[in-house]
Amino acid sequence: MALSTPKVLVTGACGQIGSELVPELRKTYAKENVIATDIKEPPPELKETGPFEWLDVTNRKSIGHIIKKYQVDIIYHLAAILSAKGEQNPSLAWQVNMIGTYNILELARELGIKQVFIPSSIAVFGPETPKVMTPQETILLPKTMYGITKVAGELLGEYYVRRFGLDVRGCRYPGIISYKTPPGGGTTDYAVAIFHEAIKNKKYTCFLREDTVLPMMYMPDCLKAAIQLMETEASRLKHHTNFNVAAMSFSPAELATEIKKYIPEFEIIYQPDERQAIAETWPRSIDDSAAREEWGWQPDYDLPRMVEDMVRNLMANLNK
Ligand code: NAD
Ligand code: SER
User: Fold this and answer.
1) Half-sphere exposure of 252 (CA within 13 A, CB side)
2) Which positions are catalytic?
3) Nearest bound ligand to CA 177?
4) Which of the following CATH numbers is that of domain 177-216+248-284+300-318: 3.40.50, 1.10.10, 3.90.25, 3.90.550?
5) Residue 157: pLDDT above 60?
6) Pick the CATH number of 8-175+218-244 from 3.40.50.2000, 3.40.50.720, 3.30.2350.10, 3.90.220.20
7) 48-66 as b/e, with b when 16 or more CB fall inside 10 Å?
Protein backbone atom coordinates (compact mmCIF):
# COMPACT_ATOMS: atom_id res chain seq x y z
CA MET A 1 0.00 0.00 0.00
CA ALA A 2 1.42 3.41 -1.00
CA LEU A 3 2.07 5.81 1.91
CA SER A 4 0.31 9.16 1.54
CA THR A 5 2.39 12.37 1.66
CA PRO A 6 2.26 14.01 5.10
CA LYS A 7 0.28 17.24 5.49
CA VAL A 8 2.30 20.05 7.04
CA LEU A 9 0.94 23.08 8.92
CA VAL A 10 3.16 26.16 9.32
CA THR A 11 2.15 28.86 11.84
CA GLY A 12 3.61 32.37 11.56
CA ALA A 13 4.33 31.49 7.92
CA CYS A 14 4.59 35.10 6.69
CA GLY A 15 7.52 35.96 8.96
CA GLN A 16 11.23 36.08 8.20
CA ILE A 17 11.76 32.31 8.54
CA GLY A 18 8.32 31.03 7.47
CA SER A 19 8.32 32.90 4.18
CA GLU A 20 11.41 30.91 3.14
CA LEU A 21 10.65 27.65 4.97
CA VAL A 22 7.23 27.22 3.33
CA PRO A 23 8.66 27.17 -0.25
CA GLU A 24 11.30 24.65 0.89
CA LEU A 25 8.66 22.42 2.49
CA ARG A 26 6.46 22.75 -0.62
CA LYS A 27 9.36 21.32 -2.67
CA THR A 28 9.57 18.28 -0.36
CA TYR A 29 5.90 17.58 0.42
CA ALA A 30 4.21 18.99 -2.75
CA LYS A 31 2.64 22.42 -2.61
CA GLU A 32 -0.94 21.39 -1.80
CA ASN A 33 0.28 19.53 1.33
CA VAL A 34 1.88 22.52 3.06
CA ILE A 35 -0.66 24.84 4.70
CA ALA A 36 0.77 28.29 5.40
CA THR A 37 -1.02 30.25 8.17
CA ASP A 38 -0.59 33.64 9.80
CA ILE A 39 -2.51 36.67 11.08
CA LYS A 40 -1.08 38.91 8.40
CA GLU A 41 -1.55 39.23 4.66
CA PRO A 42 0.62 36.65 2.89
CA PRO A 43 3.03 37.68 0.13
CA PRO A 44 1.94 36.45 -3.34
CA GLU A 45 4.68 33.75 -3.37
CA LEU A 46 3.02 32.09 -0.36
CA LYS A 47 -0.62 32.58 -1.34
CA GLU A 48 -0.25 31.56 -4.97
CA THR A 49 1.82 28.42 -4.45
CA GLY A 50 -0.39 26.47 -2.03
CA PRO A 51 -3.05 26.72 0.68
CA PHE A 52 -3.09 29.74 3.01
CA GLU A 53 -5.37 30.15 6.06
CA TRP A 54 -5.75 33.01 8.54
CA LEU A 55 -4.85 31.53 11.92
CA ASP A 56 -4.27 33.15 15.31
CA VAL A 57 -2.33 30.70 17.49
CA THR A 58 -3.88 32.10 20.67
CA ASN A 59 -7.22 30.69 19.45
CA ARG A 60 -7.12 26.96 20.18
CA LYS A 61 -10.46 26.24 18.53
CA SER A 62 -9.31 27.72 15.22
CA ILE A 63 -6.07 25.73 15.26
CA GLY A 64 -8.06 22.53 15.91
CA HIS A 65 -10.38 23.37 13.02
CA ILE A 66 -7.46 23.81 10.57
CA ILE A 67 -5.70 20.64 11.77
CA LYS A 68 -8.89 18.63 11.22
CA LYS A 69 -9.78 20.34 7.92
CA TYR A 70 -6.42 19.43 6.35
CA GLN A 71 -5.73 16.24 8.39
CA VAL A 72 -2.38 17.68 9.43
CA ASP A 73 0.49 15.32 10.35
CA ILE A 74 3.40 17.70 11.01
CA ILE A 75 3.47 21.22 12.52
CA TYR A 76 6.20 23.85 12.15
CA HIS A 77 5.18 26.32 14.86
CA LEU A 78 6.89 29.62 13.98
CA ALA A 79 4.37 32.20 15.24
CA ALA A 80 6.06 34.31 17.92
CA ILE A 81 6.81 37.81 19.17
CA LEU A 82 10.59 38.37 19.11
CA SER A 83 12.85 39.93 21.72
CA ALA A 84 12.69 43.69 21.08
CA LYS A 85 8.98 43.70 20.23
CA GLY A 86 8.39 41.47 23.27
CA GLU A 87 9.94 44.08 25.57
CA GLN A 88 7.60 46.71 24.10
CA ASN A 89 4.61 44.47 24.77
CA PRO A 90 5.45 41.69 27.28
CA SER A 91 1.81 40.72 27.69
CA LEU A 92 1.43 40.08 23.94
CA ALA A 93 4.70 38.10 23.94
CA TRP A 94 3.36 35.90 26.75
CA GLN A 95 0.02 35.36 24.97
CA VAL A 96 1.48 34.50 21.57
CA ASN A 97 4.63 32.64 22.63
CA MET A 98 3.33 30.81 25.69
CA ILE A 99 -0.40 30.32 25.15
CA GLY A 100 0.21 29.78 21.42
CA THR A 101 2.81 27.08 22.09
CA TYR A 102 0.66 25.40 24.74
CA ASN A 103 -2.28 25.35 22.31
CA ILE A 104 -0.15 23.74 19.60
CA LEU A 105 1.22 21.07 21.96
CA GLU A 106 -2.16 20.26 23.49
CA LEU A 107 -3.80 19.88 20.07
CA ALA A 108 -0.84 17.91 18.74
CA ARG A 109 -1.32 15.47 21.64
CA GLU A 110 -5.11 15.30 21.34
CA LEU A 111 -5.25 15.00 17.55
CA GLY A 112 -2.35 12.60 17.05
CA ILE A 113 0.09 14.91 15.26
CA LYS A 114 3.24 12.97 14.31
CA GLN A 115 5.89 15.71 14.68
CA VAL A 116 6.15 19.30 15.93
CA PHE A 117 9.02 21.75 15.31
CA ILE A 118 9.25 24.72 17.71
CA PRO A 119 12.28 26.96 17.28
CA SER A 120 14.00 28.21 20.39
CA SER A 121 16.60 30.95 20.55
CA ILE A 122 19.89 32.16 22.03
CA ALA A 123 17.54 34.39 24.05
CA VAL A 124 17.14 31.48 26.53
CA PHE A 125 20.55 32.45 27.91
CA GLY A 126 21.21 35.29 30.32
CA PRO A 127 24.06 37.28 31.86
CA GLU A 128 24.95 34.43 34.25
CA THR A 129 25.49 32.00 31.31
CA PRO A 130 29.10 31.46 30.10
CA LYS A 131 29.39 33.82 27.11
CA VAL A 132 32.03 32.06 25.02
CA MET A 133 31.25 28.66 23.49
CA THR A 134 28.08 28.54 25.60
CA PRO A 135 27.55 24.86 26.48
CA GLN A 136 24.45 22.83 25.59
CA GLU A 137 23.64 22.27 29.27
CA THR A 138 24.08 25.56 31.13
CA ILE A 139 22.44 28.32 33.17
CA LEU A 140 19.14 29.49 31.65
CA LEU A 141 18.20 32.74 33.37
CA PRO A 142 16.93 35.01 30.56
CA LYS A 143 16.04 38.61 31.34
CA THR A 144 13.56 39.25 28.50
CA MET A 145 9.95 38.11 28.27
CA TYR A 146 10.86 36.54 24.90
CA GLY A 147 13.68 34.53 26.55
CA ILE A 148 11.42 33.45 29.41
CA THR A 149 8.80 32.14 26.95
CA LYS A 150 11.50 30.36 24.94
CA VAL A 151 12.89 28.54 28.02
CA ALA A 152 9.36 27.60 29.06
CA GLY A 153 8.60 26.47 25.49
CA GLU A 154 11.67 24.20 25.47
CA LEU A 155 10.72 22.69 28.83
CA LEU A 156 7.07 22.27 27.86
CA GLY A 157 8.04 20.58 24.58
CA GLU A 158 10.38 18.22 26.44
CA TYR A 159 7.54 17.45 28.90
CA TYR A 160 5.28 16.43 26.01
CA VAL A 161 8.07 14.19 24.65
CA ARG A 162 8.58 12.38 27.93
CA ARG A 163 5.02 12.42 29.33
CA PHE A 164 2.99 11.84 26.16
CA GLY A 165 5.50 10.46 23.64
CA LEU A 166 4.86 13.40 21.28
CA ASP A 167 7.73 13.95 18.83
CA VAL A 168 8.65 17.61 19.53
CA ARG A 169 11.92 19.05 18.25
CA GLY A 170 13.61 22.42 18.25
CA CYS A 171 16.92 24.25 18.08
CA ARG A 172 18.18 27.48 19.63
CA TYR A 173 18.61 29.68 16.60
CA PRO A 174 21.04 32.58 16.72
CA GLY A 175 20.18 35.83 14.87
CA ILE A 176 18.94 34.91 11.39
CA ILE A 177 20.17 36.91 8.38
CA SER A 178 18.23 36.90 5.10
CA TYR A 179 17.32 39.17 2.17
CA LYS A 180 13.80 38.06 1.19
CA THR A 181 11.59 39.04 4.19
CA PRO A 182 12.53 41.60 6.84
CA PRO A 183 12.99 40.37 10.41
CA GLY A 184 10.09 40.84 12.80
CA GLY A 185 11.39 42.87 15.76
CA GLY A 186 14.45 41.20 17.24
CA THR A 187 17.71 42.43 18.74
CA THR A 188 19.74 40.91 15.90
CA ASP A 189 17.73 42.74 13.18
CA TYR A 190 20.59 45.24 12.66
CA ALA A 191 22.50 42.51 10.80
CA VAL A 192 19.82 42.57 8.07
CA ALA A 193 19.01 46.30 8.03
CA ILE A 194 22.72 47.15 7.60
CA PHE A 195 22.76 45.51 4.14
CA HIS A 196 19.68 47.36 2.88
CA GLU A 197 21.05 50.72 4.08
CA ALA A 198 24.59 50.03 2.82
CA ILE A 199 23.28 49.30 -0.68
CA LYS A 200 20.61 52.04 -0.82
CA ASN A 201 22.18 54.93 1.14
CA LYS A 202 25.82 53.88 1.81
CA LYS A 203 25.20 54.76 5.47
CA TYR A 204 23.79 52.94 8.49
CA THR A 205 23.09 54.01 12.07
CA CYS A 206 23.49 50.89 14.19
CA PHE A 207 21.41 50.40 17.33
CA LEU A 208 24.07 48.14 18.90
CA ARG A 209 27.58 49.16 20.00
CA GLU A 210 30.35 48.40 17.50
CA ASP A 211 31.97 45.67 19.63
CA THR A 212 28.77 43.71 20.47
CA VAL A 213 29.58 40.17 19.30
CA LEU A 214 26.54 37.90 18.79
CA PRO A 215 26.01 34.47 17.22
CA MET A 216 24.36 34.65 13.78
CA MET A 217 23.26 32.31 10.98
CA TYR A 218 22.42 32.75 7.28
CA MET A 219 18.93 31.69 6.15
CA PRO A 220 19.99 28.67 4.04
CA ASP A 221 21.59 27.19 7.18
CA CYS A 222 18.52 28.08 9.26
CA LEU A 223 16.27 26.12 6.85
CA LYS A 224 18.76 23.26 6.66
CA ALA A 225 18.85 22.99 10.48
CA ALA A 226 15.05 22.75 10.76
CA ILE A 227 14.66 20.19 7.99
CA GLN A 228 17.68 18.09 8.98
CA LEU A 229 16.63 17.97 12.64
CA MET A 230 13.08 16.95 11.68
CA GLU A 231 14.32 14.22 9.30
CA THR A 232 16.64 12.60 11.87
CA GLU A 233 15.70 9.13 13.11
CA ALA A 234 14.12 9.73 16.56
CA SER A 235 16.24 7.06 18.25
CA ARG A 236 19.41 9.11 17.51
CA LEU A 237 18.22 12.06 19.62
CA LYS A 238 19.16 12.46 23.28
CA HIS A 239 18.01 16.08 23.30
CA HIS A 240 14.79 17.14 21.58
CA THR A 241 13.65 20.74 21.94
CA ASN A 242 16.78 22.71 22.86
CA PHE A 243 19.69 22.01 20.52
CA ASN A 244 22.37 24.71 20.42
CA VAL A 245 23.18 25.49 16.77
CA ALA A 246 25.95 27.81 15.58
CA ALA A 247 27.30 29.14 12.31
CA MET A 248 29.25 32.40 12.84
CA SER A 249 29.77 35.19 15.40
CA PHE A 250 30.63 38.82 14.68
CA SER A 251 30.26 42.39 15.91
CA PRO A 252 28.64 45.26 13.95
CA ALA A 253 32.16 46.64 13.26
CA GLU A 254 33.33 43.29 11.86
CA LEU A 255 30.22 43.03 9.68
CA ALA A 256 30.70 46.60 8.41
CA THR A 257 34.34 45.83 7.48
CA GLU A 258 33.21 42.83 5.45
CA ILE A 259 30.47 44.86 3.69
CA LYS A 260 33.03 47.58 2.82
CA LYS A 261 34.87 45.02 0.66
CA TYR A 262 31.90 45.33 -1.74
CA ILE A 263 30.77 48.90 -0.96
CA PRO A 264 33.98 50.81 -0.03
CA GLU A 265 32.16 54.12 0.56
CA PHE A 266 29.86 52.53 3.21
CA GLU A 267 29.84 54.36 6.55
CA ILE A 268 28.45 53.13 9.86
CA ILE A 269 27.78 55.12 13.01
CA TYR A 270 26.63 53.76 16.37
CA GLN A 271 23.69 54.96 18.46
CA PRO A 272 22.97 52.11 20.90
CA ASP A 273 19.36 52.00 22.14
CA GLU A 274 17.43 49.73 24.51
CA ARG A 275 18.33 46.68 22.40
CA GLN A 276 21.97 47.00 23.54
CA ALA A 277 20.94 45.90 27.05
CA ILE A 278 19.23 42.81 25.61
CA ALA A 279 22.25 41.92 23.44
CA GLU A 280 24.56 42.18 26.45
CA THR A 281 22.69 39.35 28.17
CA TRP A 282 23.29 36.94 25.25
CA PRO A 283 26.32 34.77 24.42
CA ARG A 284 29.11 35.68 21.99
CA SER A 285 29.53 32.16 20.64
CA ILE A 286 27.79 28.79 20.96
CA ASP A 287 28.99 25.20 21.43
CA ASP A 288 26.79 23.12 19.12
CA SER A 289 28.55 19.77 19.53
CA ALA A 290 25.34 17.99 20.67
CA ALA A 291 23.60 18.96 17.39
CA ARG A 292 26.68 17.87 15.42
CA GLU A 293 26.81 14.50 17.19
CA GLU A 294 23.09 13.69 17.33
CA TRP A 295 21.91 14.84 13.90
CA GLY A 296 25.01 15.76 11.92
CA TRP A 297 24.57 19.54 12.08
CA GLN A 298 27.12 21.53 10.09
CA PRO A 299 26.65 25.07 8.73
CA ASP A 300 27.59 25.98 5.17
CA TYR A 301 27.97 29.76 5.58
CA ASP A 302 30.61 31.76 7.47
CA LEU A 303 30.78 35.59 7.60
CA PRO A 304 32.56 36.20 4.23
CA ARG A 305 30.37 33.74 2.32
CA MET A 306 27.15 35.12 3.87
CA VAL A 307 28.09 38.76 3.10
CA GLU A 308 29.01 37.94 -0.52
CA ASP A 309 25.65 36.21 -1.04
CA MET A 310 23.60 38.91 0.71
CA VAL A 311 25.21 41.77 -1.25
CA ARG A 312 24.92 39.96 -4.59
CA ASN A 313 21.24 39.08 -4.09
CA LEU A 314 20.18 42.47 -2.71
CA MET A 315 21.98 44.31 -5.53
CA ALA A 316 20.31 42.03 -8.09
CA ASN A 317 16.88 42.71 -6.50
CA LEU A 318 17.51 46.45 -6.59
CA ASN A 319 18.41 46.37 -10.29
CA LYS A 320 15.27 44.41 -11.25
P1 NAD B 1 8.85 36.92 12.57
O2 NAD B 1 8.55 37.92 13.61
O3 NAD B 1 9.50 37.36 11.32
O4 NAD B 1 7.52 36.13 12.17
C5 NAD B 1 6.61 35.69 13.13
C6 NAD B 1 5.27 35.58 12.47
O7 NAD B 1 4.31 35.22 13.48
C8 NAD B 1 4.77 36.88 11.81
O9 NAD B 1 4.49 36.67 10.46
C10 NAD B 1 3.53 37.26 12.63
O11 NAD B 1 2.52 37.85 11.86
C12 NAD B 1 3.11 35.90 13.17
N13 NAD B 1 2.28 36.03 14.37
C14 NAD B 1 2.37 36.92 15.38
N15 NAD B 1 1.37 36.74 16.26
C16 NAD B 1 0.64 35.69 15.81
C17 NAD B 1 -0.50 35.01 16.27
N18 NAD B 1 -1.13 35.39 17.40
N19 NAD B 1 -0.96 33.96 15.56
C20 NAD B 1 -0.35 33.58 14.41
N21 NAD B 1 0.72 34.19 13.91
C22 NAD B 1 1.22 35.23 14.60
O23 NAD B 1 9.70 35.76 13.28
P24 NAD B 1 10.72 34.74 12.61
O25 NAD B 1 12.04 35.40 12.63
O26 NAD B 1 10.19 34.20 11.36
O27 NAD B 1 10.75 33.63 13.76
C28 NAD B 1 10.10 32.39 13.65
C29 NAD B 1 10.47 31.57 14.87
O30 NAD B 1 11.88 31.43 14.94
C31 NAD B 1 10.03 32.20 16.20
O32 NAD B 1 9.66 31.18 17.09
C33 NAD B 1 11.29 32.86 16.69
O34 NAD B 1 11.31 32.96 18.09
C35 NAD B 1 12.35 31.89 16.20
N36 NAD B 1 13.65 32.51 16.09
C37 NAD B 1 13.90 33.47 15.16
C38 NAD B 1 15.16 34.07 15.10
C39 NAD B 1 15.49 35.14 14.09
O40 NAD B 1 16.55 35.75 14.18
N41 NAD B 1 14.62 35.40 13.10
C42 NAD B 1 16.15 33.66 15.98
C43 NAD B 1 15.86 32.71 16.94
C44 NAD B 1 14.61 32.11 16.97
N1 SER C 1 16.93 37.07 16.53
C2 SER C 1 16.10 36.92 17.67
C3 SER C 1 15.91 38.22 18.36
O4 SER C 1 16.78 39.07 18.23
C5 SER C 1 16.70 35.92 18.60
O6 SER C 1 15.77 34.97 18.87
O7 SER C 1 14.95 38.39 19.04
Assistant:
1) 25
2) 146
3) 1
4) 3.90.25
5) yes
6) 3.40.50.720
7) ebbbbbebbbbebebbeeb
Q: Is the CB of 121 under 6 A from ligand 1?
A: yes
Instruction: Quickly state the pLDDT bin for 154 (edges 50, 70, 90).
Output: very high
Q: Which of 96, 97, 122 to mutate to test the pocket of ligand 2 (most atoms within 8 A of CB)?
A: 122
- In this prediction, residues 203-231 reach a mean pLDDT of 98
The protein residue whose alpha carbon is closest to atom 4 in ligand 1 is 15
The rounded mean pLDDT for the chain is 97
Residues of the chain with CATH 3.90.25: 177-216+248-284+300-318
How many residues are given for the chain? 320
Nearest C-alpha neighbor of 279 from the set 222, 215, 219, 221: 215
Predicted local confidence at residue 318, as pLDDT: 77
Residue 3 in this model has a pLDDT that exceeds 80: no
Residue having the nearest C-alpha atom to atom 25 of ligand 1? 16
The per-residue pLDDT for 291 is 98
CA 279 / ligand 2 centre spacing (Å) = 9
Any atom of ligand 2 within 6 Å of the Cβ of 129? no
Residue 88, C-beta contacts closer than 8 angstroms, at least 6 positions apart: 185
Q: What are the residue ranges of CATH 3.40.50.720 in the chain? A: 8-175+218-244
